[in-house]
């Protein structure tokens, strides 16, 4: 019987080199992450700048805390949205909600129908098509996260759908304010357009905040009212896909936002702490967008694929252009 010989010493050399180099790169990525995060907490940072810093981090030294940013992105966004409620008036919010209700209903069902037709034309899977369509129609990642378990989507389908809407969200955050100024949109018009045409709540609030306070109030209210459609759409999805024993997650942070807004409107004492809470919420939103950008690595973008990304772009362009035309001519 032959005895196995140990590996020659020189075969271990590459591993030793990699082990030495890895901590250096990890230290650098952590240092850059810390510097960017601290900057996002300063008055010089804004949501678009924070997103850009996150993208720079992801494409260069990489995100050293992917699990941390993934876990806390949604939580930080939800708490930030609740905090923004302390700077809003209930009467103004109701008025803004009335203006956006018809837009919301027509755009949601129109987007879902167009997505179904375009998905069949592109020969995409039914689950992936529905996830991207729901993300575009309602509220991006939140809608995908709610509908995915209902259709029992695979992890790969969820990842591709989320990556698609996150990439388009990043583009929207930079493009929409520029388009709004080019068409000379009012604060009210831009806030409504943001809420209808941008997927995720984080990018809606970020783009609207860059445009003005009135735009921010309108965009936040209309977008959160739109997000409530997660519930009926998820229930309808269960029926359409003939799924049984499914659980639909209720977006409780919207209830928190409404509660904060009511407190700010009717309880005088909240006026003393309201401005501080709103400021903290805006900082939280800025950090949220930095986390989102840090999660958009080149590999994540490449994983989308041409057809799913094409479907996302098609739906986004249609809902953006049609809603902008209607807003300009009504």
Automatic annotation (TrEMBL):
Q: Which UniProt keywords apply?
A: Cell membrane, Membrane, Transmembrane, Transmembrane helix
Q: What is its main location?
A: membrane
Could you tell me which InterPro entries the record lists for this protein? UPF0324_pro
PANTHER family per the UniProt record, alphabetical: INNER MEMBRANE PROTEIN YEIH-RELATED (PTHR30106), UPF0324 MEMBRANE PROTEIN FN0533 (PTHR30106:SF1)
Tell me the protein's name. Putative sulfate exporter family transporter
Q: Which cellular component terms (GO) are annotated to the entry?
A: plasma membrane
- Span-the-membrane segments of this chain are 31-56, 76-94, 100-119, 131-152, 158-178, 190-212, 224-241, 253-274, 280-301, 308-328
What family does the Swiss-Prot or TrEMBL record give for this protein?
Belongs to the UPF0324 family.
User: What topology does the record note for this protein and the membrane?
Assistant: Multi-pass membrane protein
| Pfam hit, one | Cons_hypoth698
